[in-house]
Every structure is written in C-alpha cells, then in structure tokens.
From TrEMBL:
Organism: Amycolatopsis samaneae
Coiled-coil blocks: none
InterPro entries: NAD(P)-bd_dom (IPR016040), NAD(P)-bd_dom_sf (IPR036291), Polyketide_Oxido-like (IPR051606)
Domain annotation NAD(P)-binding: ranges: 7-198
Name of the protein: SDR family oxidoreductase
SUPFAM superfamilies reported in the protein's UniProt record: NAD(P)-binding Rossmann-fold domains
Length: 209
C-alpha cells in the first residue's frame, strides 16, 4: 500500500515507519524537520511540508491508499495542534479524492467498557490533569466523524516503549477493560492491521494489553 504518514518523528510515528517499511508498504513521511527522521529505506520517502496548510500537504496525500496521523501534543498546555492538523489533512484529502484516514486519539476520554475503579476514580483525576490535550483530541475526533472520509479512530491507553508482541486486545467503540497500557510498537501494529479492515470503517478501535 501507499501510505502517507504525519507525525513520523514521534514515538508512535517512528514505530509506524519501521513496521510499515518492513511490511513492504511505500511510506511517505511528511515532516517539519527531516533531520529528526534518520531511517533510510527504499520504501521510505521523507518530504518537508507544513501540515497546517492544506496546499502544502495536498500533493503528498494524492494517490495514497491510506493516510495516518500520529501527531500529538508534547505537553499539558492549552493546544489545538491535533484538531488543526487533522482538519488540514481532511481538507487536503478531500481536494485530492483520497479516502482512507486513520487517526491516533486516546482511550482516556471514553468510559464505555471501563471497570468501576478506572471510571470513577482514575478517569476523573486524569481528566483534570490532561484536560487540555484530551480536549484537543475530543474536538479532533468530532472533525473526523463529520468528514465524509473512510475514517478509523484508534484509541490507545497509556503508552510505553515496550516491544512489539502482537498480543494486545482490541474493542470497537468501547475501551478494553483492564487494558491500561500498550507499547507504541503494538499501537503501530494495531494501526497497520486495520488499514484494510472493512470492519474498522467509521468506528473507534481501542487497544490495550
């Protein structure tokens, strides 16, 4: 497949680059600073563009079989980075007629499927601490749902730098009960597994150990 990837220099993005290239996909990584992506691979093309400007990224989503965004906020300050970047990506895809979009969100905003301790104790505390990035992700998800694209929202729990095992659990439109952690490597694996899955269209897929 031809994949256009945003957020390729982050922890999850680098895992996506490694795994997608190893699987034989043709990956176009759209970045601001190419010096931060040092991998070389015949299946990888690195381009520099401003994700916030549809005109800048439109040529790089043209002809893609799937577009993935793993862009995230680096801190707890008020932010609209995921909302603004995703809206720009959606507009660029509309202009080019590109249909398949997968976005990385988080499972913290949702409570369906959670156990009582997580729902009534942990989540209220986390929602105050993470109110800015979670608020940004919530609006981002609304923009994705309102688009006319073939979208999938992927919602991981707390991310770690553990290995790729492929032994995580998934759930549709609800959290994985007890699945409070997931390695970035397994998150990338989950995203790539659902690229061509018809059951993953227009749903949120949660993953957790």
């Amino acid at each position: 497949m031809k994949i256009t990837l945003f957020g390729a220099t982050g922890g999850t993005g680098k895992q996506l680059v490694d795994q997608a290239c190893a699987a034989g996909h043709q990956v176009t990584a759209v970045v601001r600073d190419p010096a931060r992506l040092t991998r070389t691979d015949p299946n990888l093309t690195v381009v520099t563009a401003d994700v916030m400007t549809p005109d800048s990224i439109a040529p790089h989503v043209a002809g893609a079989d799937a577009v993935i965004t793993a862009i995230g906020s680096p801190d707890l300050k008020p932010t609209t980075i995921q909302t603004d970047s995703t809206r720009s990506i959606i507009e660029a895809m509309r202009r080019q007629g590109t249909r398949r979009l997968l976005v990385v969100s988080n499972g913290g905003m949702a409570t369906e499927g959670d156990g009582p301790v997580t729902r009534f104790l942990a989540k209220p505390i986390l929602s105050r601490v993470l109110r800015n990035p979670w608020g940004d992700m919530r609006v981002m998800e609304e923009a994705v749902r309102a688009s006319n694209l073939d979208w999938t929202i992927v919602r991981p729990p707390m991310l770690t730098d553990g290995p790729r095992t492929g032994t995580y659990r998934t759930a549709v439109d609800r959290n994985v009960r007890g699945g409070i952690r997931l390695s970035r490597a397994n998150l990338a694996d989950c995203i790539l597994r659902h690229l061509n899955d018809p059951a993953a269209l227009h749903v949120a897929i949660a993953a957790g150990n």
